[in-house]
Amino acid sequence: MRKLLACLFVLVAFMFSCESMEQEASYTIGFAQCTGGDAWRQAMHDEMRREISFYPELDLIIKDANNNTSLQAEHIRQFIRQGVDLLIVSPNEAEPITPLVEEALEKGIPVIIVDRRTASSFYTAYVGADNYEIGKLAGNYVGELLGGQGKVLEIWGLKGSSPAQDRHRGFVEALQGFKDIRVVAEVRGEWEKEIAKSRFPDVYQQVGEVDLVFAHNDVMALGVYEYLKSIGQEKKFKFIGVDGLSGPSGGLQFVTEGILDATFLYPTGGEEIIRLASKILHKEPYDKENILNSTVIDSRNVHIMKQQTDKILTQQKSIERQQEKIAEQIEIYQSQRVLLYILLGGMVVIIILGALAGLALREKQEMNRVLVTKNREIIKQRDEIEKMARKADKATEAKFKFFTNISHEFRTPLTLILGPVDDILRSNISTDLKKDMQLIKNNANRLLHLVTQLMDFRKIENKKMKLQTAERDIVAFVHTIASSFKRLAQKRRIHFAVESKPEKVKVYFDADKLDKVLFNLLSNAFKFTDDGGVISVKITISDTCDRVILMVEDNGRGMSAEHVKHAFDRFYTGDVYNNLSTGLGLSLSKEFISLHKGEIAVVSERWKGTRFVITLPLGKEHLQAEEILLQEQEEEMVALASLPYAQEIEVEAAEGVEAAAQKQYTILLIEDNEELRGFLKQRLQKEFTVVEAPDGLLGLSLAFDVVPDLIISDIMLPNKGGLEVTATLKKDLRTAHVPVILLTAKDSIEQKIEGIQSGADLYVTKPFNYQYLYERVKSLIQSRERLKDQYSSEISVDASLAAPKQLDKKFINAFTAVVQKNLANPQLSANDIAESLGMSRVQLYRKAKSILGYSINDYVVKARLKKAKHLLLNSDHTITEIATEVGFSSPAYFSTAFKNHFGVSPSDFKASHTVKE
Ligand code: FRU
Fold first, then answer.
1. Cα(320)–Cα(683) distance, rounded to whole angstroms?
2. CATH 1.10.10.60 residue ranges in the chain?
3. pLDDT tens digits, residue range 867-911?
4. DSSP-derived pairing of the beta strands 599-605 and 666-670
5. What is the 305 CA–ligand 1 centroid distance (Å)?
6. Eight-class DSSP state of 469
């Protein structure tokens, strides 16, 4: 739309510009007029204007010099500067104006001289009458009028102007034919009536009476006439003038009135001047000299002349009126043309808009068509989706049904497992078997618990879950459930307490369901709280006194914000290591609390702790009649109730942690699954000292502290994965020698390769056979032992022998270098060596023992003796000197040690060898 308006604007502007272009004159004509104040000049101007209206391309500018020659000169200069296309000059005086005319010509401006001439013939063209001829005509006329005798007084025009000079010359020449006619005086009238009138009296007084006054123009003759009339002497003179202008104050009128005896027509030539200018500007042929005719006007022809000129005047007036009308018409035409253009422009816009609207309509129709098709497609797709959704619903329903049925089927075998296990547990069996049985029992119970949860879900989904409440003391109820966790709390040094503001709070609740909820919350709290932590259950009444609030709080691991957001979502388990059970428990808890018209919420922060808040309404108004049990039903329920989950909290039998020192080898077990860890520990600790870690980070720090003989680590571990742990251990001088067995459920070849690349010695896939693992553990330890023997034998001969493992070799080299360097120092201790190697004393001790097979001290003594042996054989040093050199504080102690080790005293050793040599 905006674009269209812009187009319209441009169109209209264009039309207006065409308009103005049409009106604009192509040629500018400058007219330097000597004066514009008299009727003759005004008649000339009127004619010019009338004529120029037929030449729309011409523009006329008239500058009036008011009889001032220098002003006229300035006007001409201005026109030249302005660059007019043509110059018209009527020189006030011939001489001073001539050079300016020539200058204009030099600048390429054509110049038309009118009426008065310059002093040269350098001009483009001339228009005017022949003043010499007029003078002559006048002279001859006067000669005849005076009958060849008389006195004449001549009134001059401006002496410097060409008409005055020419008229005088012609007049005088003609009078030479009349011997008795004399020009007795002259008056300088300067072409002006008033000047002639004022100067005449003086001359008149001097010359006295004359017969005739010849004035160079009619108005000066009139001036003299008026003066003579004022003194009553006008009848004595004859008056002759020049111009013969028509109109009320022209020469024709004066002749008619008898003021003048005669006048000589001097045409103004306005029309001719314009026509000539047009020819010159349009480069048409023209005449240089355009002489206008003159004639005498006196009483004989004045009437005819007047009639003619009056007629001409009337016609001119009518022409002027017509021109005015034409101008008006042109104006109307132009404004109508503009209107027409606007209308045309408007029409064009309307047509364009119409076309655009048509296009838009077509587009819209097309879009509608597309939309209708799309809509149909969408409806079709929606129908299909609905169909698929129905199918999926059916399939899900069938799956759930199957799942529920299977779950249900699990219950019987699980019960059948649990029964005999209980029996066996009660019987007199060994501690090991008891532990196994307990493990079976715990896991069977867990399965049972999961199956029950699944079935509860189905009931809730099918709206078959019914609330069966009775009014009970909820404080006592919470205490009962909490008591199941007491032993576990004790064992793990967790501060666990139940606090209640009122000692008793009667609430209508479904014991079975609330038991499940609280049990679930407490299980989670214990699961995610570290040993030595704090867990509490607080029971309070709301400020509004209409709700009981149960708060289960711990200072354990807490949950991430994301986990908190989804805590009650069904099947949401968060990331692997932070899940709260199976993800079923909390969702189910929420459903159970909702059945009670209560609420459950969680506030938790990572590594700070978790708080679950349950609010239950007091009273029974919110419950349906069928949701409240009758007295006898309740008793029956209580009898049946066995707090199903409570049995799950079986605290493992006290672990018989045997002193590490009693067993030869130490195994570090890094496994996050508590049960698997317990299972392996229980078996391995029969033969090895077992150190445990539940995650990678702890495992790594224990490995550095303890430097075990073997490490068994899971791959999937919290904090640091098994592969990373292995790689770190194998890169560290302190633990590089320790064999690592990686356990994982992932049985892919890539995993195995990765495992081996990390430096692991063995890779065992779950599920594994314990016996297999045990055999592998044993064989790895044995092969380590063999290596150790090899190192120790190697080191006793030469410390620089190659060791199979690069890092072990590095250790041996560094270790022997430190010892050799400090052999002379009797105070050299394990501490000094450890410090030089950047290890702790215990680490050095374990490392040296595992690689070399004997203690640091033993090694140092052996090294001292070995060097002493060398010195005894290869030097002249005395035994006392050698004892000092190899760091024995006294020669006696050196001799004893040497004899103990080599079976011979140093002196005997030296003597026997010297003799041999
Ligand atoms: C008008 C006029 C005429 C005369 C002419 C001479 O200004 O004085 O009367 O004939 O000029 O140039």
1. 138
2. 795-916
3. 888 888 888 888 888 988 888 888 888 888 888 888 888 888 888
4. unpaired
5. 20
6. B
Q: Does ligand 1 have an atom closer than 6 angstroms to the CB of 64?
A: no
CATH node for 795-916: 1.10.10.60
Nearest CA to ligand 1 atom 2: 191
Q: Residue 485 to residues 277, 466, 645, 651: CA-CA distances in angstroms?
A: 129, 28, 11, 9
- Between 447 and 574, where is the model more confident? 447
State the maximum Cα–Cα separation within the chain, in Å, rounded to a whole number: 198
> CA 896 → CA 819, 883, 904, 908, distances in Å?
21, 11, 9, 12
Angle at which helix 906-916 crosses helix 856-874, to 10 degrees, equals: 40
Q: pLDDT at position 799, please?
A: 41
d(CA 708, CA 355): 92
For the segment 255-264, the average pLDDT, to the nearest whole number, is: 96
CA separation for the pair 440, 436 (Å, rounded): 6
Q: Which helix (H) or strand (E) holds 238?
A: strand 238-243
Q: Where in the chain is the domain with CATH 3.40.50.2300?
A: 666-791
**Mutation pick for ligand 1 pocket among 266, 268, 297 (CB with most ligand atoms within 8 Å):** 266
Average pLDDT of span 679-694: 88
- Please tell me the distance between residue 756's alpha carbon and the centre of ligand 1 in angstroms: 132
Distance CA 621, CA 508 (A): 10
Task: Determine whether the shortest distance from the Cβ of 116 to ligand 1 is under 6 A.
Answer: yes
How would residue 568 be classed by pLDDT, with cut points 50, 70 and 90?
confident
CATH tag, 466-627: 3.30.565.10
Confidence band for 549, pLDDT divided at 50, 70 and 90: very high
Pocket test for ligand 1, best of 44, 92, 115, 246 (most atoms within 8 A of CB): 115
Whole-model pTM: value is 0.43
Using a pLDDT cut of 90, give the percent of the chain over it.
Answer: 46
Question: Is the confidence at residue 581, as pLDDT, over 70?
Answer: no
Q: Which fold has domain 666-791?
A: Rossmann fold (3.40.50)
HSE at residue 714, side-chain half, CA atoms within 13 A, is: 23
30 Cβ inside 6 Å of ligand 1: no
Query: What is the model's pLDDT at position 441?
Result: 84
Type of residue at 104: A
41 CB under 6 A from ligand 1? yes
Element (H, E) at 610: strand 609-617
